[in-house]
Amino acid sequence: MLKTRYFVSAAVLSATAFLGGCASGPSNQQLGTVGGAVVGGAVGNAVGNGSAVGTVGGAAAGALIGNEVGRRSDQRNYDQRNPYTYYPSNGPRY
């Protein structure tokens, strides 16, 4: 019984590691959201004197700002890799 449990655990961990290698890393938008939430929460905690409302509000504001900064970074990287897009540099951005 114990050997079977170890074998199944090893098989599941191996499959997880094998399939996880196929996944791509997080985007700049995702990293910006998380980083902004952490920094915003710390700033909100400091400004709000440790109140939960200040911490949560700061984390939400930081996540929104970090998300936008990361999204723009991803868009800039995409534009640099694909210079022959339909719209010129002064055209609309989607």
Structural class of the helix and strand makeup?
mainly alpha
- Give a quick account of the main beta sheet: strands, pairing sense, barrel closure: none
* Contiguous runs where pLDDT drops below 50 for at least 5 residues: none
Secondary-structure element pattern, one letter each: HHH
Gross morphology is flat
Q: Roughly what percent helix?
A: over 70%
Instruction: Give the tally of β-strands.
Output: 0
Overall mean confidence score, pLDDT: 80
**Beta-strand percentage range:** under 5%
Computed Rg: 21 Å
N/C terminus separation: 57 Å
What's the topology here?
Layout: H1 2-20, H2 28-47, H3 52-81
Helix pairs in contact: 2-3
Please give a structural write-up.
With 94 residues, the protein is mainly alpha-helical. It has a domain at 26-81. 73% of the residues lie in helices and 0% in strands. It has three helices and no strands. It is flat, with a radius of gyration of 21 Å. The protein starts with a helix and ends in a 13-residue tail after the last helix. The mean pLDDT is 80.
Concise structural overview:
73% of the residues lie in helices and 0% in strands. By secondary structure, the chain is mainly alpha-helical.
